[in-house]
Specification:
By secondary structure, the chain is α/β, with parallel strands linked by helices. 37% of the residues lie in helices and 11% in strands. The chain has two domains: 163 residues, no CATH class; 196 residues, no CATH class. The protein has 16 helices and eleven strands. The strands form two sheets. Strands 3-2-1-4-5-6-7-8-10 form a nine-stranded mixed beta sheet. Helix 8 packs parallel to helix 9 and helix 13 packs antiparallel against helix 14. The longest helix has 18 residues. The chain binds iron/sulfur cluster.
Length: 391
């Protein structure tokens, strides 16, 4: 039987660059609110492409746009699809008609990304979630007179986006049953319409039922937002962290921030009574060598309000050349031997040993790293000279 996913009916994602999708991991065709100013978000949620995705779950193998879930289930035994079932199966309405068009959606989970404004430009990110990437993206594009790294080549996509208050207000009637709202990138703590949107939720009493979940880079604290968060049932702050110093600064896109700043900001969030703090590590080519050390750092931060378990549930597979599996098997096996002693890496370390090596993908990773290092005046192999022998 086909694997089924409930998210195309019971969840919505609005990305930082304005795409309307069934979930944050979906990579198939999606309509953009900024390119369709006259069309409502609900109509975009029922676009032909998304109806086709729904249909695929009934008639054939799931759509290629969902490949991220199938890949992650193979690589780490987890995916967004499984995550949704684990958290919300009991909240789904009974006798629901799984039609291709959802006339009056009542989302259980909503991923609302208010803008692509960010103060950082992490290596595995791009203009879709950080406007700070615009200039590097353009330089990469001009360097090659083309797009060898398959990044946002179109000029109109290399822009700063912000979802309007009117658009946000139009979501409210469809959130009456919402259990969880996620805010991700851009950096949610910087988004202009963030507080007004929280106030709309409070106005409808949704603050008493909805858990808010933030994925934040943790480097920017907005005291006004923190004050409003105190009125919600529960707030989860998931801090993105990809390495210990100095890799942390390298991946995050500049030397201005280090893990010490992060610790100070975590203390600020801890003052909220209704908060749980966790971590989100995007396991990728750059931090494969650092995962054991990072795991130790996160464990050392555990306390009554901080829980690092579940931090290593995300593996970068887009772009594919930044995947941790891109490295030669010899290195992967060496690292897997160290990681397999740690429960959090059991499945992942097994996969590290068996994945086929793809020379073209590895070359792309090395070229991308060198090009971006040149643009940013950084040096990955200066941090890890021991990796040079694998090039
Ligand atoms: S299968 Fe995965 S990618 Fe597809 S809609 Fe579900 S959660 Fe999203």
């Amino acid at each position: 039987m086909n694997k089924f996913c409930y998210m195309p009916w019971h969840a919505i994602t609005l990305t930082g660059s304005g795409l309307v999708k069934p979930c944050c991991q979906f990579r198939g065709e999606a309509e953009n609110v900024h390119l369709n100013p006259e069309t409502s978000i609900v109509n975009l949620y029922n676009s032909k492409a998304i109806q086709d995705v729904r249909e695929d779950f009934f008639v054939k193998d799931p759509t290629p746009g969902c490949s991220s879930c199938w890949e992650r289930e193979e690589q780490i035994g987890h995916s967004r699809r499984i995550w949704f079932e684990d958290h919300f199966l009991e909240d789904l309405p009974h006798n629901f008609d799984y039609e291709l068009k959802v006339e009056n959606p009542q989302w259980i989970q909503a991923d609302i990304n208010l803008s692509n404004q960010c103060n950082l430009k992490c290596r595995m990110c791009g203009v879709w979630a950080s406007h700070k990437w615009i200039s590097d993206e353009e330089t990469l594009f001009n360097m090659h007179q083309g797009n060898p790294y398959l990044r946002e080549g179109l000029k109109e996509k290399r822009a700063k986006f912000e979802v309007s208050l009117e658009r946000l207000a139009s979501l409210i009637p469809h959130l009456a049953n919402v259990r969880r709202i996620d805010f991700k990138g851009g950096e949610p703590m910087l988004a202009k319409n963030h507080i007004p949107f929280l106030e709309m939720l409070i106005d409808k009493g949704l603050n008493r039922q909805a858990t808010l979940h933030y994925t934040t880079n943790g480097t920017f604290i907005n005291n006004n937002i923190i004050e409003v968060l105190g009125q919600f049932k529960k707030v989860n702050i998931s801090i993105s962290i990809e390495g210990t110093d100095p890799l942390y600064s390298y991946i995050r896109g500049g030397p201005e921030f280090n893990t010490e700043d992060l610790r100070k900001n975590i203390s600020k969030y801890k003052e909220l009574k209704n908060v749980d703090i966790m971590f989100n590590v995007a396991m990728q080519a750059y931090n494969l060598i650092n995962l054991k050390e990072l795991h130790g750092l996160l464990k050392s931060l555990n306390s009554d309000k901080i829980n690092s378990s579940g931090a290593f549930n995300c593996v970068v597979n887009a772009p594919d050349y930044l995947s941790p599996f891109v490295w030669p098997v010899e290195l992967r096996k060496k690292i897997a031997d160290e990681l397999e002693q740690i429960d959090d890496f059991k499945h992942f370390s097994g996969q590290l040993k068996v994945f086929d090596f793809d020379q073209n993908l590895f070359n792309t990773f090395i070229n991308f790293t060198r090009d971006l290092d040149k643009i940013r005046n950084e040096d990955y192999f200066g941090i890890y000279p021991e990796l040079k022998k694998y090039i």
